[in-house]
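A student in our group prepared the protein record below, which I am reviewing. I have pasted the whole thing underneath without changing anything:
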Amino acid sequence: MRSASIALQTLACYIFSFYGIIGLVSTLPTYIAFLFPSAAYLIVIRIMRVLRIFRILKLFRYMGEANLLYSALVQARRKILVFLFTVLTLIIIFGALMFIIEGPEMDSAQFLNQFTGP
C-alpha cells in the first residue's frame, strides 16, 4: 500500500514539473484537432516534444557546447553571409550561362518530357 502512495506522489510531482507541462502542452493540440478540425494549426506546438527528447537522451549536458557553437556562428555571421552571397551569385551566373548555351528553344514541356517520357 505504501508503494502505491509513493508512486502517486512521484506521478503528481512529474505532472506538475516542467517536463510534465511540456508533455501536456505538446500532446494536447493533437486531441483538440480531432475534436475541432479548425484548430489543426495548433499541431505546430508539437515541436515542444523536442524538449522531451533532450530529457530522454540526457542532452542538456551538451548545452554549454551548443552555446559555444551559437556564439561562434554569431561571430562569423558576416563571413557566412559573404559566402552565401558568393554562392548565390555563382548560381545565377552559371544558370544564365546554361540558358545561353542551351538556347531559348528548350521549353519547360520539352524539359519535363525528358523525365516522364513521350
The radius of gyration is 26 Å. The mean pLDDT is 78.
